[in-house]
Structure formats: structure tokens, C-alpha cells
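Worked example 4.2. Below are the chains of a multi-component assembly; read each line carefully before continuing.
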Amino acid sequence: MAGFVSSHRGHASHRPDRAHLTEPRYVRWSLTAGALLFLGLFLLLPLVTVFAEALAEGWEAYRTAIFEPDAVSALLLTLTAAAIAVPANLVFGVCAGWAIAKFDFPGKSLLTTFIDLPFAVSPVISGMVFLLLFGRQGFLGPWVAAHDIKVVFAIPGIVLATVFVSFPFVAREIIPVMETSGTQEEEAARVLGASGLQTFFRVTLPNIKWGLLYGIILCNARAMGEFGAVSVVSGKIRGQTNTLPLHVEVLYGEYMTQAAFAVASLLTFLALITLVVKTLVERHLGASASQDVAPAVAA
Amino acid sequence: MKRNVLPGFRMTMGFTLFYLFLIVIIPLMTLPARTASMTLDAFWNAISNPLVVASYKLSVGAALIAASINAVCGLVVAWVLVRYSFPGKRIIDSLVDLPFALPTAVAGITLTTIYAPSGWIGRYLEPLGIKVAYTPIGVTIAMIFIGLPFVVRTLQPVIEDLDMELEEAATSLGASRTRVLLQVILPYLYPAWLTGFALAFARAVGEYGSVVFISGNLPMKTQIAPYLILTKLEQFDYAGATAIAVVMLSMSFVLLLAINALQGWTTRRLSN
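Applying the procedure described above to all two chains together yields the following C-alpha cells:
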């Protein structure tokens, strides 16, 4: 009898010392084989392909592609956008978490629905709304032009679109964590004389630190990987308004497949790091983290 | 009843609302505002254009098929990951989130490369006459990829929470394993299963980056709705783009409400 202990996410192990409580062995084996085939086809194969194609012409070609000036400036732009979007959404997430989780007020579920809105919006539409707002035909277009500020087809537009699409991630992760930990500890701290800020930093923050890390990682992954929204607001000017994903598209469109995959491999490394951190955090958080499936609607 | 005794409500709430309005609400309001300035005729013409209708059919149809495939395969994957063990399970389990974490452009070019006639899989399908890249099949495959984690991740916690006592009771009352699976366990999973399906579907309908490369963007055949929006924007046909977007958004909001309702159902089922 196969002794399988499901130590997944620290949950109780199933003790299958009773064969009648599980499927017959041939069923188990075929289901496992089927699942692995499906996952291998859809997950492993693409992963392997990225690196295989990136290195298809050897290490030299790989290094050249990555250090090429346009690729470097695309990387810098991506990092800049993320460096603005993540902290901004972090501050928002913490504020929203405090307001929503520690207090009672009417309209709470409406508020959380609004916070979730960027998830429901297709990325192209996410970018488009900023065109409608700041583009030449946009509502604020004349005002922006009069003040000689470039928003769309320039870096500020890219940053705004990035902030929009990665908006909910931190809030969504820490609100449940904050709600679970309740208000008792904070109230006790207040009773003992702590100020608001002291209460937050000494009591709340340690409780939410794993959820916070989780949210930051997801927010960052989305911010750096965004494609659809940024496609719309970027002028796609090589070396200036191309983010890393856009640069991948440019290279691929010019049939520079190896270079495209080389740059793509950088983003894939980011994805793998995100997965690793996610797994580590889940192990610390236990079951509660995995129940929050982020319905991240497209990127 | 919770009494609001902690400090900082006004400050945090104020900032929350301010930021929310600035970043999300006001930009999104441009859509209905722009639509309001269109005549009904112009709006109808924009969304009933054959190209546009074809793109809706593709985006929605392929998403439905992809989400269904994900529902079936995702159920098996979730069950295997929770109930069975095999070497490397931990790593494979973490890998399930890859479609979440991988930038869509990377997924897009990779899937195209794999299924193109010269690709690792495409080259075997080509002699059989099966074309994947630049066809609706390719679009569906890309949508399966990005929807994969939704069903699996929604089902896993529920399967983990399954009370062995239910199965033991049914078995001791004489039910065969098949009967236990179909009549005891499966109904328990329905809410989460449907939620996962809806999430995968919603994601696939609006997806751009992963799909736009493999689709080939052939008019009337493989143009997805987001692609059409982008094309219209590039032609400065903001009105047309807005019209298509409004239809898509309405679909998304209906889906969002349905998903919220389903998730509520799941939570109520679980807490029983």
C-alpha cells in the first residue's frame, strides 16, 4: 500500500492505511500519469523552450542580446515603472488593509469590489482608459498639451498603466490576513498606551509580514511583466519607451527569435523567483495563503 | 458588534479613497463618459461590424472551450496533487503557478514557437494536417495555458478540507469507490469547481499578450477582441475602440458578479 502523506501546505496528513478509501492502484497511476502529461505539456515544455531558444546560438549570442543597449534601456524602464508602482500600491494596500480590516463601516464590500476592479478589466482596456484621459483627444488632453507635459506615449503613461494593473495585489493579500488577526492585539496595545504608529509597526506589521511579502512579490511580477496595457500607452520608441515585454515583442516581430528569447529569459527568471518566494511564503503562512486565488485577469 | 476604537481610520480611509479614485475610478469613468458622447447609431455600427462580431465569437468561444478543458484536467491535477504522492510533487505543485507569474508576452512567443510548423510539437502535427499556430486552436491552447492555475488552485484547498469521515461513512454503508467519488465528493467540489471555471473563463476572454502572438490576427478568423481594440486605437478611432471595450467590460462585470456569488457559495459550503 502506498503510504502517501499529503504534507502539502502543512495540512493534516491523510492516513491511507485503508485501501478502500482510495482508488485502485491502476486508477491512481493513470490519473497521475495523465496529470503529469498535461502539466508537462503546458508548463514544463514552455519553460524549457524559453531557455532552449535563448541559448540556441550559444552563450556569446545570449550575452550580446542581453547587454544590447535597447535591451538595457528596456530593462531600466521596466525597473523604474516597478520601483514606482510597487511602493505606491504597497502604501495603498496597507492603508486599505487597516481601514477595511480593523474597522466596521457600511459599504465595505462595495469598497473591496472597487479595489478588485483592475482584475476584471482586460489589459488593453486598462491602458486605453489612460489614452482616453490624457491622449490628444482625451478628456485632459488639451490641459496636458497646454502645460507641455507628455503623459501618453511617454514614461509617465507607462508608469500610470503599470500602477493601475498591479493596483489590487498588495491589498488583496493583506486584507484577509489582517482580518484573521482581528483587532484584539491592537486594542491591547492601545490600552497599554501605544500610539497609533507604534501599534501599527510593533503589533500589526509583524503579524502581516508574510502576507505583505506575498503581495509585494505578486505586485512586482505583474508590474514588470505587464504587456497589454503598456502596449497601448507606450509610443514603442526603441530605447526610450519600450519596457522589457515590449522589447521582446519588437525583437520577435523582427524575426530576431534568439534575441527575443534571450530577453524573455530574463523575465522568466523573474517569474521563477516569484514562484520560489511564493512557495516559501506559503509554507510560513500555512493554508490561508493558498485559498486566495488571485483572479489576475490578463497582463 | 465591533466598536471602532483604533486610531487612524480617517487618515487611512481618506487616503484609500483618494488613491482609489485617482488611479482606478476616474480613469475607468472615461469609458462611460466617452460612450455617452457617441450616438446610438455610431455605437451600434461599431459593435455590429462583422470583424468585431467575429472577434467576440472567437474570444468568448475559445475561452469557453479552454476553460472547460481546464475544468476537467484541473480537477484531475488538483486531485492528484492533494491525494497522491510522487517524486518531485513539491516542485510541480509550485510550477502550477507559472502562468500567473510569467509575463504574457513571454508566454505568447513561447507557445507560438512550440506550435508553429517548425516547432517542437508543431512539426509532428503538421504532417497530420493539424495546424495549431495562427488558428483558433492555437488561441484555445494559449487560453488553456493561462487559465490552468485557476481551477487547480481553487480546488486544492477544498479537496484538502474534505472530511475523511464522509468517505468512510459512505464506504462503510456499502458504496463503491466510484460511487463515493461521484456522489459524495464531487457535489462537495461543485462550488469551487465552478468558481475556478468562471475565473479561468474571465481571464481568457480578456487575455491579450499570451494569445495575440499565436493567433496570427487574421481578419474574421483569428482576431481576438482586445486586438481589435488596439488596432482601432492605433488608427485613432477612439470611438470604435471604446464601443468594443464597453461591451467587453460589461461581460467582465457580469462575470465578476457571478464569480463573487460563486465564491460566496463556496465559503458557505465550506463552513457547513
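Take a moment to check your reading of the output against the notes. The first helix of chain B runs from residue 9 to 36. The two ends of chain B are 23 Å apart (CA to CA).
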